[in-house]
Amino acid sequence: MFHTLRAFWNQSFFIPAPTVTEKNLPDQTGKVYLITGANTGIGYQVAAILYSLNAKVYVGARSESKATAAISSIKSLHPSSKGGLEYLHLNLSDLSTIKSTAEDFMRRESKLHWLDNNAGVMIPPSGSKGAQGMDLQFQTNILGPFLLTKLLLPVLKRTAESEPAGSVRVSWAGSLAVELGSPKGGMLWKKTPSSSEETLDDSKDIRTNYSITKAANYFLGNEFGKRFGERDGVLHNSYNPGNLKSDLQRHTPKPLLWLFNAMLYPPVYGAYTELYAGLSQDLTIKDQGAYIVPWGRRVSVRKDLEDEVAKEDGQAAKLFEWCDRVTREYA
After folding, report:
1. pTM
2. CATH number at residue 104
3. Which residues form a coiled coil (predicted)?
């Protein structure tokens, strides 16, 4: 309990100033980045900063019209940029579409320096489902990013071969819910009616499901790092971007939103957290699974979650195997 309260306080109030911002990042000419959910909120801010520094940024989004509007907006803010902004159709809630998204990206690019799994959905209307009939948050926040990341591993590895070790990265979006809302051990499982195999339990309330997805992203940042990180020269990590005003709260009841507004920061601060995860030179290839909090600090998480990461057959490994099994037919 003490750790949870301390995490809430340290990640919400009196936060140290960001150390990685548009003011001290170097020129990004020649770098290629894919930011999911970059048409709005924190992802938009990340894309804008990278583009202002002459990077080529892919805006992964479901809506072409919204992505195009975001691209136009960013270009108008930074008319002197020599970088690029490209729309990449990405529907994380439909597993059957993600392979074509990855293939489209790899047809257009031979390099990828950072995959930022920023997109997600938070507490949608009760009963919301993805295209494959599972809880919408499980599909959008866990399974979709898992499959996209797995399919892009070859281009990430190829990029890392000609870059400093650990400078090519994959980052996963957590939140305070990793510490405050996830159940003991991070995951909840249930037996499937048709077999003896277990699946993530989506029968709980939508807030619990959301918290499970955030703990899952912490687990996946660690498991991808264990299985592929040092082998491929790619650093995998996760982050809590911070308590931020963004479209993520669009489904939050108004009374709760009024309460949250007292502790919400502008989205650009979340971008600084994510940019630390993606570009900070403080992190090395040895920092697989690092968890980053506002506005760019590495911290430990709840001990029960760290214990599951450390086990060979813990919840993190079990989650990875479940994701692999569920998404295999779409890979």
Report:
1. 0.94
2. 3.40.50.720
3. none
